[in-house]
Amino acid sequence: MLKVTQLSKTYHTPSGKIKAICDVSFQVKKGDILGIIGFSGAGKSTLVRCLNRLEEPDAGQIVIDGQTITGLQGKPLREARKKIGMIFQQFNLFDSRTVWNNIAFPLEVAGWSREQIKERVATLLSLVGLDDKSDVYPAQLSGGQKQRVGIARALANHPDLLLCDEATSALDPRTTQSILELLQKINQQMGVTIVLITHEMDVVQSICHQVVVMEEGRIVETGAVEAVFRRPSSATLRLFGQQKEPIKANQLTNRADYQEVNSLAG
Amino acid sequence: MPDDLLPLMLTGTIETLYMITLSSLMAFLLGFPLGIILVITAPNHIWPLPHLHNALGTVINATRSFPFIILIVVLLPLSRLIVGTTLGATAAVVPLAVGSAPFVARLIENSLKEVERGKIEAAIALGASPLEIVGKVLIPEALASLIRSMTLAVITITSFTATAGAIGAGGLGSLAIRYGYMRYRDDVMIATIVALILLVQGFQWGGNLLARSIDRRRHQFG
Ligand SMILES: Nc1ncnc2c1ncn2[C@@H]1O[C@H](COP(=O)(O)OP(=O)(O)O)[C@@H](O)[C@H]1O
Ligand SMILES: [Mg+2]
User: Fold this and answer.
1) Residue spans of alpha helices (H) in chain B
2) What's the domain of life for this entry (chain A) (predicted)?
3) Which residues of A touch B217 (CB under 8 A)?
């Protein structure tokens, strides 16, 4: 579904060159959730932002669903982006638009009719559990609610791929869990492939199928989550492992807030 | 109170309002697109064109470095060309509009630059075109700030009209010079000053009201 080949990106700053990502290659199967994990500055954001060309890679190739994303310009690039959703750590909602109008934005841009937009927004509002917040402005929402709007906005135009750059890092643990459950539900029900950046091992272990571990712009470890975590070889994963005990799958269901989480996620 | 004071003030105020309205309108028509182009052609913005950006910036700075009274004199031939005369309120509108447009452009630029990078990136990621980003993100997101900027522009144009009055534009500025200064009419002088203060206060009050109502709606406790 997603195939990245020998991708590199160097930033040129007044203080010198920064090799943000270097010769990165990996693949994601359709319907999988890929977790990208690594310490701050490892190049995770740069990598993900290259996938929808918010950053311009210097070399390498990105292919999504058979379409080569690298090399696209102008309108074809914009059309490709309409099928790649993205959610952000800082949510990046439009303060000038109500929740309803935030979710309608990508549909307006994609040229949907008024009637189609109404129907789609209503569906998305109930998917993310915000039916009652339709006419509210983002400034009046909690962090978790803002991210739900972000998710609804990203999913509006039926993307094949959803990019999440530390989508839960600005949220408390409990809200984080409910957002993760929502992402998992979206992945399972809609079959959307997800690429998710995180610096929390729990996140990878609870919802990802596949993991990429990054250090200094390179992939140092990759594979199925279970296999990689059974025998971690990289310094990053060992250090992460020392920080705290990972949550095991069944521990999640025993958590006190799971009921609430579960009901939110439907 | 001399019986000519009221009619003098009335025509003066009407002429001034006429000049403010017309020149503000034209200054915005010229300055708004310039401000937008300045913002979006900057490096790393949605339509990067560094050469155009720098050229435009230089031209704007050059016109802004003229003292306004010099600018009027320089632009008077343009008035003759467009309006047919260099005297009167309508003739003054040309230099007023052209002279304030660069200032308006900078104000618009500053307001639009306040829109967070992340919001613009979200719009790009959703496949919006530069034009859609300007119309659906930049302007609506910066609306309260734009209104504050335009209020400041109208107030500056008000003071420009008074300056223009000194060289034959008519209006309150002209009254202050011709009656207040040359004929020692202290009553006219004081009345024009009061009228100008009231005008400026009125614009500021209206602008604040509008900007605050937008903030309040979006933030509830704005
Ligand atoms: N716009 C930029 N300009 C210059 N350097 C950057 C820019 N963005 C990121 N970097 C640098 O690239 C490296 C990787 O950054 P990033 O991809 O943000 O890492 P991560 O998301 O893993 O924390 C860091 O050294 C960072 O300082
Ligand atoms: Mg990052």
Assistant:
1) 5-40, 50-65, 68-82, 89-113, 117-125, 130-133, 139-141, 143-165, 171-175, 186-219
2) Bacteria
3) 137
